[in-house]
## 1
Amino acid sequence: MLVDMSELNDVKERARVLVAGAGPTGLTLACDLARRGVPHLLIEAQDELFPGARGKGLQPRTLEVFDDLGLVDAVLAAGGRYPRVLDWEGAVRGETFDLVEPMPPRPGVPHHESLMLPQWRTQRLLLDRLRELGGDVRFGTRLTGLTPDAEGVTVRLTGPEGEFTVRAGYAVGADGGRSAVRKQLGIGMEGETVDPRPMIVADVRLTGLDREHWHAWRKAEGGGATLCPLRGTGDFQLQAQYDDPDARPDTSPEGIRALIGARTVLDAADVHEVLWASEFRARTALAERFRDGRVFLAGDAAHLHSPAGGQGLNTGIQDAYNLGWKLAAADGPQDPLLDTYEAERLPLAADVLGLSTRIHRATVAGRVLQRGRDTQQLDLHYRDSALTRQHGAPAGELRAGDRAPDARCTAPDGTVFRLFDAFRGPHCTLLTFGGAPPLPALPSYTRATGLRHCVVAATEPHAEGAYGTGTYLVRPDGYVAVAG
Ligand SMILES: Cc1cc2nc3c(=O)[nH]c(=O)nc-3n(C[C@H](O)[C@H](O)[C@H](O)COP(=O)(O)OP(=O)(O)OC[C@H]3O[C@@H](n4cnc5c(N)ncnc54)[C@H](O)[C@@H]3O)c2cc1C
């Protein structure tokens, strides 16, 4: 049966972009496509959003993406700071330390610290924003097949109404580590087990622990266990490892209660409710390619991280943010703009995988590696991208390809504005500081994205150092494409 999109109620037009998977990656991409007015269909195999707190760390760069997409206030209101870790020795309270290095406020960085927000709530807030933007998720609909051709992609779906196919201009596999899209394309995913010992992650309600600390029993018999109070909720997240690689974790509520009773200061009866539980082994893996013609991979479908370092969800959100504007602006699948998605994101994902694996291995070796500035994702750049052009010597510290920092600026008419306010939206921004000459030429994608021109007469010292008296074209995702 061939179903036209108009028969699917949810979308009025044929999907130009089919997004498979409403995890953080797919939801972010759908928000970006929705605000750009790109017809799309976001499908999710499950009947509801993922219910666990799993990826609970949002990095500062992700908060900047959420600012641009219009949901940062809701995210900041719902989340909170990481608590200090309290190292228990059995029933004795030991030292406390910061797992996430406290970062002083920095000019140019509106969100200088990581935020804790349970993954289920991040996804809920993304869905709320998507609905505000006129989009939605089609739940209970699984991608089962995919055939790209010269004119588009035929996607086979199974939903409440049975099997049907849809035609899309592009398809994006944001369908997680076991990605059906990746398998359909025959794209390999090279990887290794970072740690063969099984781990449990679970969300629990309990009494008997303060909510000011992330409680850790690192030397508990059978394997370390931690209980972290989840900001904005009354719940805790349990993370536990088994020393025995052949152990068979019991993720039933009784099993979780027994584990907490055995490895922590609590009794099993202190655990009132087990909301969600899952077992996993820390793996790292990278897809061979992130693109095959009209089909793209993003998020865990393209790169799998150890949970150490809090990078997986954040890297997936950055993938979506990199891809959204390119899908909207590309002049057909041959447009070289689309080639830059894989060229920019694959090497960067490889670097981030190296970081999370290093943090994991150091933690296993008994050294708790603090999550520092390199985990914040603010210093990632696209200096080597084909989209990046540096004309002449840099006018300031900033290079073409870098993230454009925020600053308070004064326009020639005396109006005061923030750069991030000027960047917010689907457009590119042309910034001219101190009467700098215009850029020799603007890339053709600026016609599709729209262009906003901002002239800066005066700014703060940090921005004078960064931007100098230069002219900059800032991409819709906040990176300097052209500097002159
Ligand atoms: C214990 C733990 C802690 C973590 N902590 C952090 C952290 O602090 N910070 C961080 O950044 N990351 C963290 N992560 C990683 C993070 O959870 C993942 O990287 C993130 O969920 C990936 O998002 P995604 O949208 O790419 O994929 P997923 O979240 O896996 O979403 C994929 C979606 O696709 C759907 N789907 C699958 N197949 C199909 C199909 N065929 N058709 C339609 N839909 C389909 C799935 O149901 C799912 O909803 C942690 C992970 C673990 C296990």
## 2
Amino acid sequence: MPRFRHILDTMAAYKPGKVVATPDGRSYKLSSNESPYDPLPSVVEAIAEGARQINRYPDPGAVGLTEAIAERFGVPADNIALGAGSVTVAQQLFESIGEPGVEVVYAWRSFEAYPLLADLAGVKSVRVPLAGEDHDLDAMAEAINERTRMVFVCNPNNPTGTSIRRGALEAFLDRVPEHVLVVLDEAYREYVRDEDVPDGLTLYRDRPNVCVLRTFSKAYGLAGLRVGYLVAHEPVATAIRKTIIPFAVNHLAQVAAVASLKAEDELLERVEHVVKERTRVREALIAQGWTVPPTEANFVWLRLGERTLDFAAACAVEGVAVRPFAGEGARVSIGTPEANDAFLTAAAAFRG
Ligand SMILES: Cc1ncc(COP(=O)(O)O)c(C=O)c1O
């Protein structure tokens, strides 16, 4: 019998979002916080053109994409590190700090990849329970010690959708020692409408230990191509770039991401529709009698406790796949109006 690392025995594999369907074929995937829109024609065209070069390895430095991101966000190109999805960049972060005895602090519940990546990198997870549905930043600051090398702050938080405002986040960052890297995971940044929720890129500039994780998977609609990036001060970005598997960001992902930045206005218009639907869905749920925390992301969160799996099953009857966390709650992505209506029908029926 081949032998594996002991940690694997304790690890549950990452569970991707499910797909379900009604007998007459209705199927709405609201389980992975994806964009519900088809890719833009201009992006499909760039991918088709890029397909002509796939006999060659991709540009390992992804120079074109790096420069496009640098220009778009007004950051130096050497502050950018790319990966095959932001989850891979997160893995690179864990690999860069991972050593026996090292700890990472993050809120829990938050993005379910954090504990997996910590375990894989041999880093001890220090999970700080949410206060209600929000980050408990005081408790997180108190959890930092001399073994802490990194803190993940997911803003808005997956799966609760709640977000941290500028004053609270700045006060927290002021308490974090300089040798601890703070990663602001902003996978859902483009959906934020609360002006008090800071753009991490305004916070990292004066703080050498703060960096920002972003993705093309959500608002930019490229979940299937896998591309995300970190914006960090040069020593951090350089360390992270060292951990990338050569050629990890493939050529089609690179050209599609460049094309998406060019078509950003169109994409952000779509985000606006999702934000409007988010308001409609949340208000309808509240009118049905649900408690729904304010959300700045492209999903809503229902704390269902022991009823969570029953709720997911009730949604499946309407063809709606949600993301249940057994015993805790369900996260439901905002989709097309039709998908959202199917979800609201299921939610209303569940309340009876
Ligand atoms: C908070 C958060 N960070 C990172 C990711 C990873 O996204 P990707 O690897 O597609 O960029 C996700 C995906 O759901 C997420 O919710």
